[in-house]
Amino acid sequence: MQKIELTKDLKIQAINEIKKYFSTERDENIGDLSAELFLDFVTGKIAPFFYNQGIRDAHQYINERLEDLFGLEKSTNI
After folding, report:
1. Own/partner pairs for 62-70, CB < 8 Å, 24+ apart?
2. Residue 6: which of 60, 17, 77 has the closest Cα?
3. Contact predicate 47/5, CB 8 Å
4. Across the chain, how many H-helices and E-strands are there?
5. Alpha carbons 6 and 13: distance in angstroms, whole number
């Protein structure tokens, strides 16, 4: 799997959210570098679990919709 890449703007937003989380939830002030390193860890090691679950959920959803197609068949009493 390819590494998950964020746009520059999304990366800045994520870093700010991480810093805010550490400040409000843990009463710790961390800098941009620490927040970026934490983000790199999350995107490299944790995010693939969520990505893979999203793939499984999409697969299940599509399969269910494909099964619904059979309900649209017309009667062929010949």
Report:
1. none
2. 17
3. no
4. 3, 0
5. 10
Distances (CA, A) of 26 to 18, 32, 37, 45: 11, 16, 17, 22
Q: Which parts of the chain have pLDDT scores under 70? A: 1
Question: Which conformational region is residue 49 in: left (phi greater than 0), alpha (psi within -120 to 50 degrees), or beta?
Answer: alpha
CA distance 18 to 44: 16
- Given this model, what pLDDT does residue 39 score? 97
Biggest CA pair distance of the chain: 76
> pLDDT tens digit string along 60-76?
999 988 888 877 887 78
pTM to 2 decimals? 0.75
Contact in structure between 30 and 19 (CB atoms under 8 Å): yes
